[in-house]
Amino acid sequence: MIKPVAMLSLLVFFIGCADSQQNVNNSAPSEQDQVGSTEPVPVPVAPEADSLSEDEPVETVEAKEPWKPKTDAEWKEILTGEQFYVTRQKGTERARDNEYWDNKKEGLYRCRCCDELLFSSATKYKSGTGWPSFFKPASGEAVREEEDRSFFSVRTEVLCRRCDAHLGHVFEDGPPQTGLRYCMNSASLKFEEKPGEGKPKDFNGK
Prior knowledge:
Blueprint lengths: L3 H24 L3 H8 L33 H7 L2 H9 L17 E5 L5 E4 L3 E3 L6 E2 L8 E6 L6 E6 L5 E6 L9 E4 L4 E5 L7 E2 L4
C-alpha cells in the first residue's frame, strides 16, 4: 500500500511535467510565424502617373543649334530690301500689299531670318487690318516683347526670340480666345504649307 507521503510526491511530479510541456508549446513558433519570418510581405506600389493627360495640349518646341548673330552686310546678302528694312530696321510694310495678309492656306509661319517656328494657321484669323494676324504664337518660347515708343505712342513690339528680328506688334483687341492680336509683317515671315492645320477665322469664328 502506497503511503500518503509517496502519493503526494508523485502528484507534485506529474503537475510539474505538465506545466513544463505547456511552456514549451507556448514558446515554439507556429507554422504561420515561421512562414512570415522567412518570406517578406510584398508592399503594393502605385503606378507612376503620366506627367500630362491625353487631353492636355502640348506646345511644340523645336531643337535648334545656337544662334550666331550676323552683320548688316550678311543680312543684306540673305534678305530682300524690304525684308531687311522690316526685320533688321524695325520697319512696317504696307497694309494689304504684302504676301500673307489674306493667305487662307493651312500651315506654319516661320521667321524669315532664322527659320524659327513662330505661328500656326490654326491661330490666324481675319482681323481686317491688312496684315497677317494671329491670336497667339506657336509656343511661349517663340517670341519676345519690348516696349516701343516710336511714332509718338506706346506700343508692344514683337520680336523673334532667337534672332531678334522685328515681327510686328501685339494689341489687346484680339478675338475671345486670348484677347490678343499679333499684327505681323509678311516680310518677317516665311510660310510652310502643311495640311491638317486649322483655317483662318474672323472675329465671329467663321
